[in-house]
Amino acid sequence: LTFDDGPTTELTHWILNELKKENIKATFFCVGENAKNHPELMDEMRSAGHIIGNHTMRHENGNKTSKQVYFDSIDEAATHTSSTLFRPPYGRLPISFINPIKHNYKIVMWSWLSYDYDHSVSVDKILSKAKKIKGGDILVLHDNIKVEERLKVILPQLISIVKEKGLEFRTIE
Q: SS3 of 141, please?
């Protein structure tokens, strides 16, 4: 179970409380600016046993950013995330960026995208799609204000669906 974009004052505490209730550890791919602005939330995530990953400093799109600016953004975010895990924003990365990033980071994508950010996809459709989750899938949800209402419906039901399948949640190491 992974979350992209946080931490946020609006949603991170709620996510952490839901995960604690269910005794689940997750991996949070944090935007450096958010990590810098909310070190107390970063500490809370770590002390609860969650894993932190790097999601660039300002959520830059690698297809619209020069290689040097993108690499600088990853390095700057690393000072706030202290992680060797990296997930590119938007799940896209120019092919020429991959090998240089892999020298210092493990690039982590996902196999199940929640579409929690896409209001054209109904919550019912998302939860129906969740029934196809299988062992080994990497699930991605978001920790940002744009998904707050939808996430509060999706996350508890997603957890229930996964547990009913007899699957366990694990962090990415």
A: strand
